[in-house]
Amino acid sequence: ALGLHQRQLNILSRGLELLEVGGRLVYSTCSLNPLEDEAVVAAALRKYGGAVELVPLPQELASLGRPGLETWIVTRPCTSGDACWAQPADVPEDLRGKVRASCFPAPPGSPEEE
Questions:
Q1: How far is it, in rounded angstroms, from Cα 51 to Cα 72?
Q2: Which DSSP category does 22 fall into?
Q3: What is the pTM of this model?
Q4: What is the tens place of the pLDDT at every residue in 2-22?
Q5: Closest CA to 8 of 32, 39, 48
Q6: What is the pLDDT of residues 67-91, one digit of tens each?
């Protein structure tokens, strides 16, 4: 999931950059991993600030989606250890190149939390 997080963020970012003002972009993945879903959406909301907003599905399409997670943990990549982190500051210095801050839930008070 860590390897796909940045790719998914690049795909979503490119879609948002091509979107006309007032347009609508629907983002969906085939993964249930929050690093490829919620973390990507949260990172895009941080990146684009007030220029984009997250809106719920229309009532007639509500059965096609599921509510997103508000919190998740990030686990240590490619090891047999049980290390996991709740915020970027918890990640050891030597892993910060692999475990990006954008993988974590939005801090309280950020645009995604409003």
A1: 25
A2: T
A3: 0.77
A4: 778 999 999 999 999 999 999
A5: 39
A6: 888 888 888 766 556 678 888 888 8
Structure tokens that stand for 103 in this block? 């993988």
CA triple 104-88-70, angle to 5 deg: 25
C-alpha span between 16 and 71 (Å, rounded):
24
30 catalytic? Reply is yes
What are the helix and strand counts (H, E) for the chain? 2, 2
Catalytic entry in 30, 78, 84, 103: 30
Burial pattern 36-60, b for ≥16 Cβ within 10 A else e, equals: bbbbbbbbbbeeeeeebeeeeeeee
The answer to whether 47 and 17 have CB atoms below 8 angstroms apart is no
Contact partners, residue 14, CB within 8 Å, separation at least 6? none
